[in-house]
């Protein structure tokens, strides 16, 4: 694996981020219903969006949210979306992105990070569990809420 770095999402890299490929079956897990519902009230000032560069080429994307005043605890410090190009999944890009978001959360004074996913055979549950997220509840839509202590 080459050098991994983070860069803010920008006009220069957004097309590459939007064109990241998925493995067959993953498309159904990209945006849980809870995130779609909450997206209507996200404050752009609390959004944290980064691309992961592998040797200078966009290889992944992570979107987090840091809003200590959110009325929903699961959205105060959370991963909204994480996507790694299909051809390089399993090589540490997603872990790098999630650890960077966790470090940012810690720097902002949070003691944990949450993520929500839909259960399913091709879903991200095993990935989040490998990172140390533990199931702490369910949304009203039956999605799993995972939490990572920092």
Coarse shape: globular
Strand-residue fraction? 25-35%
Note the main sheet.
7 strands, mixed
CATH architecture group name? 3-Layer(aba) Sandwich
Cα-to-Cα separation, first versus last residue:
26 Å
Topology as a string of helices (H) and strands (E): EHHEEEHEHEE
Outline the structure in words.
Keywords: Transferase. Pfam families: Acetyltransf_1 (PF00583). This is GNAT family N-acetyltransferase. One of its GO terms (molecular function) is acyltransferase activity, transferring groups other than amino-acyl groups. The protein is α+β, with helices and mostly antiparallel strands. It has a seven-stranded mixed beta sheet with strand order 1-2-3-4-5-7-6. The longest helix is centred in the middle third of the chain and has 15 residues. The protein is globular and about 35 Å long. About 4% of the residues have low confidence.
Key features of this structure:
150 residues, alpha+beta, Aminopeptidase, 7-stranded mixed sheet
Q: How do the strands and helices of this protein lay out in sequence?
A:
Blueprint: E1 4-8, H1 14-18, H2 33-38, E2 47-54, E3 57-66, E4 77-84, H3 93-107, E5 112-117, H4 125-131, E6 134-138, E7 144-149
Parallel strand pairs: 4-5
Antiparallel strand pairs: 1-2, 2-3, 3-4, 5-7, 6-7
Organism: Cryobacterium glaciale
GO molecular function, one term: acyltransferase activity, transferring groups other than amino-acyl groups
InterPro entries: Acyl_CoA_acyltransferase, GNAT_dom
């Amino acid at each position: 694996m080459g050098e991994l770095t983070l860069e803010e999402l920008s006009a220069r890299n957004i097309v590459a981020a939007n064109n990241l490929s998925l493995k067959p079956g993953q498309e159904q897990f990209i945006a849980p219903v809870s995130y779609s519902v909450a997206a209507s009230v996200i404050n752009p000032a609390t959004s944290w969006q980064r691309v992961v560069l592998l040797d200078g080429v966009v290889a992944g994307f992570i979107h987090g949210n840091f809003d200590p005043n959110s009325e929903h605890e699961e959205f105060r410090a959370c991963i909204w979306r994480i996507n790694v190009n299909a051809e390089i999944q399993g090589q540490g890009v997603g872990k790098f992105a999630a650890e960077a978001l966790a470090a940012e959360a810690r720097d902002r004074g949070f003691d944990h990070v949450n993520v929500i996913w839909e259960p399913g055979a091709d879903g991200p549950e095993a990935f989040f569990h490998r990172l140390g997220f533990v199931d702490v509840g369910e949304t009203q839509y039956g999605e799993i809420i995972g939490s990572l202590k920092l």
